[in-house]
Amino acid sequence: MTSTRDALIDAAADLLTTGGPAAVTLREVGRRAGVSHNAPYKHFADKEELLAAVAARDLDRRAAATRRAARYRPPAEALRAMLHGYARHAARDPELFRLTYGSWHDGSADLGAAATAARAAFVDVVVAAQADGSLPPGDPERLAALMLALVHGATDLALSGHLARRGKGHADPADLVDDLLGHLGAR
Amino acid sequence: MTSTRDALIDAAADLLTTGGPAAVTLREVGRRAGVSHNAPYKHFADKEELLAAVAARDLDRRAAATRRAARYRPPAEALRAMLHGYARHAARDPELFRLTYGSWHDGSADLGAAATAARAAFVDVVVAAQADGSLPPGDPERLAALMLALVHGATDLALSGHLARRGKGHADPADLVDDLLGHLGAR
DNA sequence: ACCTGAACACCGTTCAAGT
DNA sequence: ACCTGAACACCGTTCAAGT
Protein backbone atom coordinates (compact mmCIF):
# COMPACT_ATOMS: atom_id res chain seq x y z
CA MET A 1 0.00 0.00 0.00
CA THR A 2 1.71 3.15 -1.18
CA SER A 3 0.15 6.43 -0.23
CA THR A 4 -0.38 9.13 -2.81
CA ARG A 5 2.43 11.00 -1.15
CA ASP A 6 4.88 8.15 -1.69
CA ALA A 7 3.69 7.72 -5.26
CA LEU A 8 4.42 11.40 -5.90
CA ILE A 9 7.93 11.09 -4.46
CA ASP A 10 8.54 7.95 -6.54
CA ALA A 11 7.37 9.64 -9.70
CA ALA A 12 9.47 12.75 -9.08
CA ALA A 13 12.60 10.68 -8.36
CA ASP A 14 12.05 8.59 -11.49
CA LEU A 15 11.61 11.63 -13.68
CA LEU A 16 14.70 13.27 -12.22
CA THR A 17 16.87 10.21 -12.71
CA THR A 18 15.67 9.64 -16.24
CA GLY A 19 15.39 13.11 -17.67
CA GLY A 20 17.08 15.57 -15.36
CA PRO A 21 15.54 18.48 -13.46
CA ALA A 22 13.76 19.84 -16.53
CA ALA A 23 11.73 16.65 -16.81
CA VAL A 24 10.30 16.95 -13.30
CA THR A 25 7.06 18.84 -13.90
CA LEU A 26 4.21 18.68 -11.45
CA ARG A 27 1.93 17.82 -14.31
CA GLU A 28 3.91 14.72 -15.27
CA VAL A 29 4.45 13.80 -11.62
CA GLY A 30 0.71 13.90 -11.07
CA ARG A 31 -0.01 11.92 -14.20
CA ARG A 32 2.39 9.14 -13.19
CA ALA A 33 0.93 9.01 -9.71
CA GLY A 34 -2.55 8.75 -11.19
CA VAL A 35 -3.82 12.06 -9.84
CA SER A 36 -4.44 15.49 -11.28
CA HIS A 37 -1.66 17.92 -12.05
CA ASN A 38 -2.17 19.88 -8.87
CA ALA A 39 -2.92 17.15 -6.39
CA PRO A 40 0.73 17.48 -5.24
CA TYR A 41 -0.25 20.74 -3.57
CA LYS A 42 -2.30 18.78 -1.06
CA HIS A 43 0.85 16.99 0.09
CA PHE A 44 3.61 19.52 -0.49
CA ALA A 45 3.58 23.29 -0.21
CA ASP A 46 5.24 23.64 -3.59
CA LYS A 47 7.56 21.93 -6.04
CA GLU A 48 10.64 22.67 -3.95
CA GLU A 49 9.19 20.83 -0.96
CA LEU A 50 8.48 17.79 -3.11
CA LEU A 51 12.09 17.79 -4.30
CA ALA A 52 13.28 18.16 -0.71
CA ALA A 53 11.33 15.01 0.15
CA VAL A 54 13.07 13.19 -2.71
CA ALA A 55 16.44 14.36 -1.40
CA ALA A 56 15.61 13.38 2.19
CA ARG A 57 14.66 9.87 1.08
CA ASP A 58 17.93 9.57 -0.82
CA LEU A 59 19.91 10.69 2.22
CA ASP A 60 18.11 8.14 4.40
CA ARG A 61 18.98 5.35 1.99
CA ARG A 62 22.58 6.49 1.78
CA ALA A 63 22.91 6.52 5.53
CA ALA A 64 21.59 2.93 5.62
CA ALA A 65 23.95 1.83 2.83
CA THR A 66 26.83 3.52 4.64
CA ARG A 67 26.09 1.61 7.83
CA ARG A 68 25.78 -1.65 5.87
CA ALA A 69 29.18 -1.05 4.27
CA ALA A 70 30.70 -0.86 7.75
CA ARG A 71 29.39 -4.18 9.05
CA TYR A 72 31.74 -7.15 9.50
CA ARG A 73 34.79 -5.28 8.29
CA PRO A 74 37.85 -3.83 9.94
CA PRO A 75 37.50 -0.03 10.26
CA ALA A 76 40.09 0.91 7.61
CA GLU A 77 38.42 -1.33 5.08
CA ALA A 78 34.95 -0.13 6.05
CA LEU A 79 36.10 3.45 5.61
CA ARG A 80 37.32 2.82 2.09
CA ALA A 81 34.15 0.93 1.20
CA MET A 82 31.96 3.78 2.44
CA LEU A 83 33.85 6.42 0.49
CA HIS A 84 33.94 4.31 -2.67
CA GLY A 85 30.24 3.67 -2.22
CA TYR A 86 29.59 7.39 -2.08
CA ALA A 87 31.32 7.92 -5.41
CA ARG A 88 29.69 4.89 -7.00
CA HIS A 89 26.21 5.94 -5.96
CA ALA A 90 26.74 9.40 -7.45
CA ALA A 91 28.05 7.98 -10.71
CA ARG A 92 25.02 5.74 -10.94
CA ASP A 93 22.49 8.51 -10.45
CA PRO A 94 24.11 11.90 -11.08
CA GLU A 95 20.87 13.86 -11.15
CA LEU A 96 19.78 12.56 -7.78
CA PHE A 97 23.24 13.26 -6.38
CA ARG A 98 23.05 16.84 -7.62
CA LEU A 99 19.62 17.31 -6.07
CA THR A 100 20.55 15.85 -2.71
CA TYR A 101 23.72 17.88 -2.35
CA GLY A 102 22.53 20.85 -4.34
CA SER A 103 21.20 24.16 -3.19
CA TRP A 104 19.87 23.93 0.28
CA HIS A 105 16.13 23.49 0.85
CA ASP A 106 15.69 25.43 4.06
CA GLY A 107 12.09 24.45 4.51
CA SER A 108 12.65 20.82 5.29
CA ALA A 109 13.55 19.71 8.80
CA ASP A 110 13.52 16.14 7.50
CA LEU A 111 16.37 16.92 5.18
CA GLY A 112 18.49 18.41 7.95
CA ALA A 113 17.89 15.40 10.19
CA ALA A 114 18.66 12.97 7.38
CA ALA A 115 21.90 14.78 6.56
CA THR A 116 22.99 14.71 10.19
CA ALA A 117 22.25 10.99 10.45
CA ALA A 118 24.19 10.21 7.28
CA ARG A 119 27.20 12.11 8.61
CA ALA A 120 27.01 10.45 12.04
CA ALA A 121 27.20 6.96 10.50
CA PHE A 122 30.44 7.94 8.87
CA VAL A 123 31.95 9.60 11.94
CA ASP A 124 31.43 6.38 13.91
CA VAL A 125 33.72 4.49 11.56
CA VAL A 126 36.33 7.26 11.69
CA VAL A 127 36.39 6.93 15.47
CA ALA A 128 36.88 3.17 15.18
CA ALA A 129 39.66 3.62 12.63
CA GLN A 130 41.43 6.07 14.90
CA ALA A 131 41.10 3.63 17.81
CA ASP A 132 42.89 0.84 15.94
CA GLY A 133 45.56 3.18 14.65
CA SER A 134 44.67 3.19 10.97
CA LEU A 135 43.84 6.90 11.03
CA PRO A 136 45.78 9.66 12.77
CA PRO A 137 44.41 11.13 16.01
CA GLY A 138 42.51 14.41 16.22
CA ASP A 139 38.91 15.58 16.16
CA PRO A 140 37.08 12.73 14.40
CA GLU A 141 34.34 15.00 13.07
CA ARG A 142 36.90 17.22 11.45
CA LEU A 143 38.78 14.28 9.98
CA ALA A 144 35.46 12.92 8.71
CA ALA A 145 34.71 16.30 7.14
CA LEU A 146 38.07 16.19 5.35
CA MET A 147 37.33 12.82 3.83
CA LEU A 148 33.74 13.61 2.94
CA ALA A 149 34.78 16.88 1.33
CA LEU A 150 37.37 15.06 -0.74
CA VAL A 151 35.06 12.36 -2.01
CA HIS A 152 32.27 14.85 -2.60
CA GLY A 153 34.50 17.25 -4.49
CA ALA A 154 36.12 14.55 -6.60
CA THR A 155 32.70 13.16 -7.45
CA ASP A 156 31.21 16.54 -8.30
CA LEU A 157 34.17 17.61 -10.44
CA ALA A 158 34.13 14.27 -12.25
CA LEU A 159 30.42 14.63 -13.03
CA SER A 160 30.82 18.14 -14.38
CA GLY A 161 33.91 17.23 -16.41
CA HIS A 162 36.29 19.46 -14.47
CA LEU A 163 38.60 16.61 -13.59
CA ALA A 164 41.33 15.76 -16.11
CA ARG A 165 39.78 13.04 -18.22
CA ARG A 166 42.70 11.19 -19.70
CA GLY A 167 46.46 11.08 -19.82
CA LYS A 168 48.83 11.06 -16.91
CA GLY A 169 46.69 13.30 -14.71
CA HIS A 170 43.65 11.09 -14.95
CA ALA A 171 42.13 9.99 -11.68
CA ASP A 172 38.76 8.55 -10.69
CA PRO A 173 37.13 9.77 -7.50
CA ALA A 174 37.97 6.33 -6.10
CA ASP A 175 41.65 6.85 -6.97
CA LEU A 176 41.69 10.20 -5.18
CA VAL A 177 40.04 8.61 -2.15
CA ASP A 178 42.81 6.01 -2.09
CA ASP A 179 45.43 8.74 -2.48
CA LEU A 180 44.02 10.62 0.50
CA LEU A 181 43.84 7.51 2.66
CA GLY A 182 47.44 6.81 1.71
CA HIS A 183 48.56 10.28 2.74
CA LEU A 184 46.66 9.89 6.01
CA GLY A 185 48.52 6.68 6.66
CA ALA A 186 45.49 4.36 6.63
CA ARG A 187 46.48 0.73 6.12
CA MET B 1 32.43 50.07 -25.96
CA THR B 2 30.59 46.95 -24.88
CA SER B 3 28.98 44.85 -27.54
CA THR B 4 25.43 43.63 -27.18
CA ARG B 5 26.87 40.20 -26.59
CA ASP B 6 28.91 41.40 -23.60
CA ALA B 7 25.94 43.35 -22.28
CA LEU B 8 23.87 40.16 -22.37
CA ILE B 9 26.52 38.22 -20.49
CA ASP B 10 26.81 41.01 -17.92
CA ALA B 11 23.07 41.12 -17.39
CA ALA B 12 22.80 37.34 -17.04
CA ALA B 13 25.66 37.22 -14.53
CA ASP B 14 24.15 40.04 -12.50
CA LEU B 15 20.75 38.42 -12.38
CA LEU B 16 22.25 35.09 -11.38
CA THR B 17 24.33 36.60 -8.59
CA THR B 18 21.47 38.65 -7.25
CA GLY B 19 18.47 36.38 -7.58
CA GLY B 20 19.66 32.88 -8.37
CA PRO B 21 18.97 30.79 -11.47
CA ALA B 22 15.23 31.46 -11.39
CA ALA B 23 15.86 35.18 -11.84
CA VAL B 24 17.78 34.68 -15.07
CA THR B 25 15.05 34.98 -17.70
CA LEU B 26 15.84 35.90 -21.28
CA ARG B 27 13.19 38.57 -21.06
CA GLU B 28 14.86 40.32 -18.15
CA VAL B 29 18.32 39.78 -19.62
CA GLY B 30 17.18 41.48 -22.81
CA ARG B 31 15.52 44.32 -20.93
CA ARG B 32 18.69 45.06 -18.94
CA ALA B 33 20.80 44.97 -22.07
CA GLY B 34 18.42 47.38 -23.76
CA VAL B 35 17.21 44.97 -26.42
CA SER B 36 14.11 42.92 -27.00
CA HIS B 37 13.39 39.71 -25.13
CA ASN B 38 14.60 37.51 -27.96
CA ALA B 39 17.58 39.43 -29.24
CA PRO B 40 19.74 36.96 -27.24
CA TYR B 41 18.95 34.36 -29.88
CA LYS B 42 21.02 36.31 -32.38
CA HIS B 43 24.09 35.83 -30.16
CA PHE B 44 23.47 32.51 -28.45
CA ALA B 45 21.74 29.39 -29.70
CA ASP B 46 19.67 29.18 -26.54
CA LYS B 47 19.61 30.04 -22.86
CA GLU B 48 22.06 27.28 -21.97
CA GLU B 49 24.67 28.69 -24.31
CA LEU B 50 24.33 32.12 -22.73
CA LEU B 51 24.88 30.59 -19.30
CA ALA B 52 27.89 28.67 -20.63
CA ALA B 53 29.38 32.01 -21.72
CA VAL B 54 28.85 33.37 -18.20
CA ALA B 55 30.59 30.31 -16.77
CA ALA B 56 33.48 30.54 -19.24
CA ARG B 57 34.06 34.19 -18.32
CA ASP B 58 34.09 33.27 -14.63
CA LEU B 59 36.62 30.50 -15.25
CA ASP B 60 38.87 32.91 -17.19
CA ARG B 61 38.81 35.37 -14.33
CA ARG B 62 39.51 32.66 -11.80
CA ALA B 63 42.48 31.43 -13.78
CA ALA B 64 43.84 34.99 -13.83
CA ALA B 65 43.27 35.44 -10.10
CA THR B 66 44.92 32.09 -9.45
CA ARG B 67 48.03 33.14 -11.38
CA ARG B 68 48.10 36.47 -9.54
CA ALA B 69 47.95 34.69 -6.19
CA ALA B 70 51.09 32.78 -7.15
CA ARG B 71 53.28 35.80 -7.98
CA TYR B 72 56.07 36.88 -5.63
CA ARG B 73 55.41 34.10 -3.14
CA PRO B 74 57.16 30.90 -2.22
CA PRO B 75 55.29 27.91 -3.73
CA ALA B 76 53.87 26.55 -0.48
CA GLU B 77 52.43 29.94 0.39
CA ALA B 78 51.14 30.47 -3.15
CA LEU B 79 49.44 27.10 -3.00
CA ARG B 80 47.60 27.97 0.19
CA ALA B 81 46.61 31.38 -1.17
CA MET B 82 45.19 29.86 -4.35
CA LEU B 83 43.13 27.28 -2.50
CA HIS B 84 41.86 29.81 0.03
CA GLY B 85 41.03 32.13 -2.86
CA TYR B 86 38.97 29.39 -4.47
CA ALA B 87 36.86 29.00 -1.33
CA ARG B 88 36.55 32.75 -0.80
CA HIS B 89 35.39 33.39 -4.34
CA ALA B 90 32.71 30.72 -4.02
CA ALA B 91 31.50 32.10 -0.70
CA ARG B 92 31.26 35.55 -2.22
CA ASP B 93 29.17 34.45 -5.21
CA PRO B 94 27.62 31.05 -4.55
CA GLU B 95 25.25 31.15 -7.50
CA LEU B 96 28.03 31.83 -9.97
CA PHE B 97 30.12 29.09 -8.36
CA ARG B 98 27.26 26.63 -8.78
CA LEU B 99 26.81 27.59 -12.41
CA THR B 100 30.49 27.37 -13.28
CA TYR B 101 31.00 23.98 -11.68
CA GLY B 102 27.49 22.73 -12.19
CA SER B 103 26.13 20.39 -14.83
CA TRP B 104 28.36 20.34 -17.84
CA HIS B 105 27.46 22.45 -20.86
CA ASP B 106 28.76 20.22 -23.65
CA GLY B 107 28.14 22.75 -26.34
CA SER B 108 30.82 25.21 -25.37
CA ALA B 109 34.41 24.67 -26.46
CA ASP B 110 35.26 27.95 -24.72
CA LEU B 111 34.24 26.46 -21.42
CA GLY B 112 36.42 23.40 -21.86
CA ALA B 113 39.42 25.53 -22.79
CA ALA B 114 38.84 27.90 -19.86
CA ALA B 115 38.60 24.98 -17.44
CA THR B 116 41.82 23.46 -18.74
CA ALA B 117 43.65 26.79 -18.42
CA ALA B 118 42.42 27.29 -14.86
CA ARG B 119 43.67 23.85 -13.90
CA ALA B 120 47.03 24.34 -15.62
CA ALA B 121 47.75 27.49 -13.60
CA PHE B 122 47.31 25.47 -10.45
CA VAL B 123 49.38 22.50 -11.58
CA ASP B 124 52.33 24.84 -12.25
CA VAL B 125 52.43 25.84 -8.60
CA VAL B 126 52.15 22.24 -7.47
CA VAL B 127 55.21 21.41 -9.57
CA ALA B 128 57.14 24.28 -7.98
CA ALA B 129 56.09 23.19 -4.49
CA GLN B 130 57.26 19.65 -5.17
CA ALA B 131 60.58 20.99 -6.47
CA ASP B 132 61.33 22.85 -3.25
CA GLY B 133 60.21 19.93 -1.11
CA SER B 134 57.08 21.41 0.40
CA LEU B 135 54.89 18.82 -1.30
CA PRO B 136 55.54 15.08 -1.64
CA PRO B 137 56.71 13.69 -5.00
CA GLY B 138 54.42 11.97 -7.48
CA ASP B 139 52.30 12.90 -10.49
CA PRO B 140 51.69 16.66 -10.04
CA GLU B 141 48.41 16.59 -11.96
CA ARG B 142 47.09 13.92 -9.69
CA LEU B 143 48.24 15.74 -6.58
CA ALA B 144 46.64 18.90 -7.94
CA ALA B 145 43.41 16.99 -8.52
CA LEU B 146 43.47 15.84 -4.91
CA MET B 147 43.75 19.39 -3.61
CA LEU B 148 41.22 20.83 -6.04
CA ALA B 149 38.74 18.09 -5.20
CA LEU B 150 39.16 18.82 -1.50
CA VAL B 151 38.65 22.55 -1.75
CA HIS B 152 35.81 22.12 -4.21
CA GLY B 153 34.04 19.55 -2.06
CA ALA B 154 34.49 21.50 1.16
CA THR B 155 33.17 24.62 -0.55
CA ASP B 156 30.19 22.89 -2.11
CA LEU B 157 29.22 21.08 1.09
CA ALA B 158 29.54 24.31 3.05
CA LEU B 159 27.28 26.14 0.62
CA SER B 160 24.62 23.45 0.75
CA GLY B 161 24.79 23.17 4.53
CA HIS B 162 26.08 19.60 4.56
CA LEU B 163 29.15 20.50 6.59
CA ALA B 164 28.74 20.49 10.35
CA ARG B 165 27.93 24.08 11.18
CA ARG B 166 28.93 24.46 14.79
CA GLY B 167 30.39 22.64 17.73
CA LYS B 168 33.62 20.68 17.83
CA GLY B 169 33.27 19.33 14.31
CA HIS B 170 32.97 22.76 12.75
CA ALA B 171 35.41 23.53 9.97
CA ASP B 172 35.56 26.15 7.25
CA PRO B 173 36.66 25.11 3.78
CA ALA B 174 39.84 27.07 4.56
CA ASP B 175 40.39 24.99 7.70
CA LEU B 176 40.04 21.75 5.75
CA VAL B 177 42.49 23.05 3.15
CA ASP B 178 44.99 23.71 5.91
CA ASP B 179 44.35 20.26 7.39
CA LEU B 180 45.07 18.63 4.03
CA LEU B 181 48.23 20.65 3.48
CA GLY B 182 49.32 19.63 6.97
CA HIS B 183 48.77 15.95 6.23
CA LEU B 184 50.67 16.33 2.96
CA GLY B 185 53.59 17.81 4.87
CA ALA B 186 53.52 21.26 3.22
CA ARG B 187 55.49 23.77 5.27
C1' DA C 1 -9.13 15.43 4.25
C1' DC C 2 -8.19 14.89 -0.52
C1' DC C 3 -8.98 15.76 -5.19
C1' DT C 4 -10.49 18.06 -9.82
C1' DG C 5 -10.79 21.42 -13.74
C1' DA C 6 -10.47 26.01 -15.22
C1' DA C 7 -7.85 29.96 -15.11
C1' DC C 8 -3.66 33.27 -14.58
C1' DA C 9 0.82 34.93 -15.07
C1' DC C 10 5.12 33.74 -16.88
C1' DC C 11 8.73 31.63 -19.60
C1' DG C 12 11.69 29.61 -23.65
C1' DT C 13 11.46 29.39 -28.31
C1' DT C 14 9.92 30.18 -33.16
C1' DC C 15 8.61 32.92 -37.03
C1' DA C 16 7.59 36.49 -40.22
C1' DA C 17 8.97 40.87 -40.94
C1' DG C 18 11.71 45.05 -40.67
C1' DT C 19 16.56 47.96 -41.20
C1' DA D 1 23.98 41.13 -39.76
C1' DC D 2 21.02 42.38 -36.08
C1' DC D 3 16.73 43.35 -34.12
C1' DT D 4 11.42 43.52 -33.19
C1' DG D 5 6.61 42.05 -32.04
C1' DA D 6 3.27 38.56 -32.19
C1' DA D 7 2.37 33.97 -31.37
C1' DC D 8 2.81 28.95 -29.43
C1' DA D 9 3.36 25.44 -26.22
C1' DC D 10 4.35 24.68 -21.55
C1' DC D 11 4.82 25.30 -16.63
C1' DG D 12 4.00 26.57 -11.43
C1' DT D 13 0.50 28.15 -8.78
C1' DT D 14 -4.21 29.68 -7.28
C1' DC D 15 -9.08 29.19 -6.77
C1' DA D 16 -13.75 27.69 -6.63
C1' DA D 17 -15.99 23.61 -6.35
C1' DG D 18 -16.86 18.75 -5.55
C1' DT D 19 -16.74 14.04 -2.34
Could you characterize what this model shows?
The structure is a homodimer. Chain A has helices at about 5-20, 25-35, 45-70, 75-90, 95-100, 110-130, 140-160, 175-185. Chain A is globular and about 55 Å long. With about 190 residues, chain A is mainly α. The interface between A and B is large, with 45 and 45 residues. The first copy, chain A, binds a DNA duplex (19 and 19 nucleotides) through loops.
**Total strand count of chain A, please?**
0
Individual helix count of chain A:
8
**Most extensive chain-chain interface:** A-B, 45 and 45 residues
Structural class of chain A: mainly alpha
What's the alpha carbon Rg of chain A, rounded to whole Å?
19 Å
Helicity of chain A, as a percent range: 55-70%
| Oligomer category | homodimer
Q: Which sheet architecture does the biggest sheet of chain A show? A: none
Give start-end ranges of low-pLDDT stretches of chain A. Answer: none
Percentage beta strand of chain A: under 5%
Spatial shape of chain A: globular
Short description:
The structure is a homodimer of 187-residue chains. Chain A has 187 residues and is mainly alpha-helical.
